């Protein structure tokens, strides 16, 4: 017959497993629903054209999203004419874009574009008031900007601020000028929209357009026009996908960890019950089936609740991702019935996998365990566990050594492997480490030889399994929290130092509220500027980041600048395309024209761009290009009028802020990962401590009968929890330390700079304090209830 205390202990452990499985399945369901939702929409400014023709795609690399290479000017015009002659087509309109932004506004990336007025026919919106632009100083703007026809407006362009008169307003984003003025500011043509006669079948026109285009483009109609959504949105969705995938995998892994540790501790506490079942004839197979049945029941209920919770919270999670920058604005999640079903099945499988070791341990209980009264763990470490723990620790040690000598690509993987292996190894070896480590940590208690101090020390050393089960989740959380946050912080500081050390300049002029510096702003700076653009090289016309530089480039980067028909490339680009110094490289530029340029130098891959061209070459072929930064090389500060939207800052400050948006996303990603792992730790710690406290009612009763006051009982339990959390934190730091020191050494070798370890103390303190607070609350509060019920 099962006692009330045993039943309470069992249901407490079941509750922890239920919550772990439910949360894991909820996270997997939400992540899968968002990942499988396309979320892309046809751009408003092109949605009015039933058929769109897109230029052929170039070679794309993972995580890098660039626009397709434009058609050559002559090819684009010939294709436009041929498409315009198709039956049912009223006109074929080329779409061009250039940088435009009303002064003193900070708009989203997709709204910082100007177009020729002819392209307004492709939009699904039209004029709200006023008329189209007729002269070069007239412009049509989005009415949400607050301008009315006849008002003057200053628009920032690549040339500098331009004064216009508003001739009309539209019900959608964008700036529209005369076609002639747009041709001077815009680059090449990537899209041609077909306007059809009323009643014309778009499918039939699309089929005819495909025959006319052949391999020179892609014909899009209907929902396939979503492929023309801004590449920035595609990149944002890709980043969000990486975040969701990492969170889902981490949730599945930690769910197995929590279920396994919780059931292992529960089985260890039910040895007497299992021994009694063996005494009355139960076979080992029946005991194993019993544990699996309990896990199946808990897993099924938890998975069902988690799948339902994931479906309900998926829209809320989508909103959070949009606000954080991991999904584009307007993204919507679509529900698919099979996703929660698959997540439910995954949750059940995870619960059964997690209980495997516990079921084997239950099947090995002997009938004599029914006679056992003491909570002493005579054999907390089995030979198999000791071998597995030493093997995992050895793998972690090898990975830590490899981290110190690995390159940049393998550095992160080896660091993560070091932490995971050491965490697993120390968790397996924890029962053997508890005695010596607890002895060292509780040595100060020996100076106060009172009953509570003795009980704290002996309880932890005697009940090794209980102590180890509580240590494990704290160890894992501290290890991963310290590793992730400190690695990110150390890497960012090292990257900032690398960028600052590579530049020889007095100061940096950077854009304020705009995506780049105009020619007017750059002209004020006595030094070197980097005119950002994209070029396409090789047979696959791979997109390459490029910059136009002037003669002052050599003073800043100590690299001879390209001049005339020459180009400078990085070593990785040269190796990928087979370019060597003195050879000729064929590059397609932003207006679609191809130029053959001689390679004059091959530079290190640490340079900020892959290709460097003469500045006038970039400006001739990309009228809308903007400079990311201009470095001042003279002692005197640069006077910058407010209308140029630029500021002068130190080189170190620019290096720290250069990747500010990327760093923000990285830290949000880090926060999400730490929050997920810390959340599961809260479940594991609370479940384990509650289970342990529920099973210690008899210990509390004995303490009271022995003369201990309620305050002494609570102090004993709280002190024991504090020591266990301290042990977990110490082992967690021990697991993360080799990976961190190896990473620092690897960065020093890779960058050739004095990189210092930067520990994220606020994160470490917060995680340890959270574990301590939660563990203490989960111990003291139930104990207070027990004390009130005792006579």
Automatic annotation (TrEMBL):
Compartment(s) where it occurs, according to its Swiss-Prot or TrEMBL record: Cell membrane
Transmembrane annotation, as ranges: 12-36, 243-269, 290-317, 337-358, 387-406, 412-442, 463-484, 665-692, 713-741, 761-787
Alphabetic keyword roster: Cell membrane, Membrane, Transmembrane, Transmembrane helix
UniProt GO cellular component terms: plasma membrane
GO MF, one example: transmembrane transporter activity
Any Pfam family: FtsX
Database matches in InterPro entries: ABC3_permease_C, Macrolide_Exporter_MacB
Start and end residues of each ABC3 transporter permease C-terminal domain: 246-367, 673-789
Membrane topology: Multi-pass membrane protein
Residues making up the signal peptide according to the UniProt record: none
Matches recorded under PANTHER family: ABC TRANSPORTER PERMEASE YTRF (PTHR30572:SF4), MEMBRANE COMPONENT OF TRANSPORTER-RELATED (PTHR30572)
Family assignment from sequence similarity: Belongs to the ABC-4 integral membrane protein family.
Name of the protein in question: ABC3 transporter permease C-terminal domain-containing protein
Species this chain originates from: Streptomyces variegatus
């Amino acid at each position: 017959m099962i006692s009330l205390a045993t039943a309470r202990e069992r249901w407490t452990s079941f509750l922890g497993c239920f919550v772990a499985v439910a949360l894991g399945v909820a996270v997997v369901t939400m992540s899968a629903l968002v990942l499988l939702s396309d979320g892309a929409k046809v751009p408003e400014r092109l949605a009015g054209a039933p058929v769109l023709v897109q230029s052929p795609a170039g070679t794309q690399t993972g995580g890098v999203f660039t626009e397709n290479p434009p058609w050559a000017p002559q090819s684009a015009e010939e294709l436009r004419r041929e498409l315009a002659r198709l039956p049912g087509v009223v006109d074929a309109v080329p779409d061009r874009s250039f940088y435009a932004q009303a002064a003193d506004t900070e708009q989203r990336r997709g709204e910082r574009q100007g177009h020729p007025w002819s392209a307004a026919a492709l939009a699904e919106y039209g004029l709200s008031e006023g008329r189209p632009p007729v002269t070069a100083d007239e412009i049509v703007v989005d009415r949400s900007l607050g301008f009315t026809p006849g008002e003057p407006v200053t628009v920032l362009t690549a040339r500098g601020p331009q004064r216009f008169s508003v001739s009309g307003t539209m019900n959608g984003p964008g700036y529209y000028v005369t076609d002639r003025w747009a041709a001077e500011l815009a680059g090449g043509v990537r899209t041609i929209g077909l306007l059809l006669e009323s009643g014309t079948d778009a499918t039939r026109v699309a089929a005819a357009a495909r025959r006319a285009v052949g391999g020179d483009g892609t014909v899009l109609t209907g929902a396939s026009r979503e492929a023309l959504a801004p590449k920035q949105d595609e990149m944002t969705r890709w980043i969000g996908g990486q975040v969701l995938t990492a969170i889902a995998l981490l949730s599945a892994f930690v769910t197995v960890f929590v279920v396994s540790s919780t059931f292992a501790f529960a089985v260890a506490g039910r040895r007497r019950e299992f021994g009694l079942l063996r005494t009355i004839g139960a076979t080992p197979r029946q005991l194993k089936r019993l544990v699996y049945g309990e896990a199946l029941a808990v897993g099924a209920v938890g998975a069902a609740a988690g799948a339902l919770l994931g479906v309900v919270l998926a829209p809320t999670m989508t909103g959070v991702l949009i606000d954080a920058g991991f999904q584009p604005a307007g993204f919507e999640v679509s529900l698919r019935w099979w996703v929660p079903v698959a997540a439910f099945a995954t949750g059940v499988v995870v619960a059964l996998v997690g209980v495997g070791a516990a079921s084997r341990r239950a099947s090995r209980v002997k009938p004599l365990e029914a006679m056992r009264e003491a909570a002493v763990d005579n054999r907390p470490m089995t030979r198999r566990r000791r071998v597995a723990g030493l093997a995992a620790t050895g793998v972690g040690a090898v990975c830590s050594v490899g981290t110190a000598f690995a390159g940049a690509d393998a550095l992160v993987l080896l660091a993560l492997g070091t932490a995971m292996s050491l965490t697993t190894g120390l968790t397996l070896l924890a029962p053997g480490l508890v005695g010596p480590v607890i002895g060292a940590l509780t040595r100060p208690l020996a100076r106060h030889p009172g009953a509570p101090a003795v009980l704290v020390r002996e309880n932890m050393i005697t009940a090794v399994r209980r102590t180890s089960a509580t240590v494990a989740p704290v160890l894992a959380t501290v290890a991963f929290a310290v590793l992730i946050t400190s690695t990110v912080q150390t890497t960012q500081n090292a990257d900032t130092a690398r960028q600052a050390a590579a530049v020889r300049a007095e100061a940096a002029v950077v854009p304020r509220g705009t995506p780049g510096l105009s020619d007017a702003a750059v002209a004020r700076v006595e030094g070197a500027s980097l005119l950002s653009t994209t070029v396409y090289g090789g047979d696959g016309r791979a997109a390459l980041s490029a910059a136009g530089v002037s003669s002052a480039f050599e003073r800043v980067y100590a690299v001879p600048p390209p001049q005339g028909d020459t180009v400078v490339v990085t070593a990785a680009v040269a190796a990928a395309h087979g370019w060597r110094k003195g050879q000729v490289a064929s590059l397609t530029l932003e207006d679609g024209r191809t130029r053959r340029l001689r390679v004059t130098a091959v530079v290190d891959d640490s340079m900020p761009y892959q290709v460097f061209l003469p500045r006038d070459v970039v400006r001739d072929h990309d009228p809308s290009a903007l400079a990311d930064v201009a470095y001042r090389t003279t002692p005197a500060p640069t006077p910058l009028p407010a209308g140029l939207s630029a500021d002068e800052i130190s080189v170190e400050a620019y290096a720290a802020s250069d990747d500010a948006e990327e760093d923000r996303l990285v830290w949000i990603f880090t926060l999400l990962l730490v929050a997920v792992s810390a959340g599961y730790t809260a479940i594991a710690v609370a479940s384990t401590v509650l289970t342990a406290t529920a099973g210690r009612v008899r210990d509390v009763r004995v303490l009271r009968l022995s003369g201990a006051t309620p305050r002494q009982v609570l102090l004993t339990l709280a002190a024991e929890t504090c020591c266990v959390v301290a042990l977990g934190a110490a082992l967690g730091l021990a697991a993360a330390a080799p990976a961190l020191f190896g990473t620092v050494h690897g960065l020093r070798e890779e960058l050739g700079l004095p990189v210092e370890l930067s520990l994220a103390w606020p994160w470490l303190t917060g995680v340890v304090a959270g574990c301590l607070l939660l563990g203490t609350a989960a111990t003291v509060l139930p104990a207070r209830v027990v004390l009130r019920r005792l006579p």
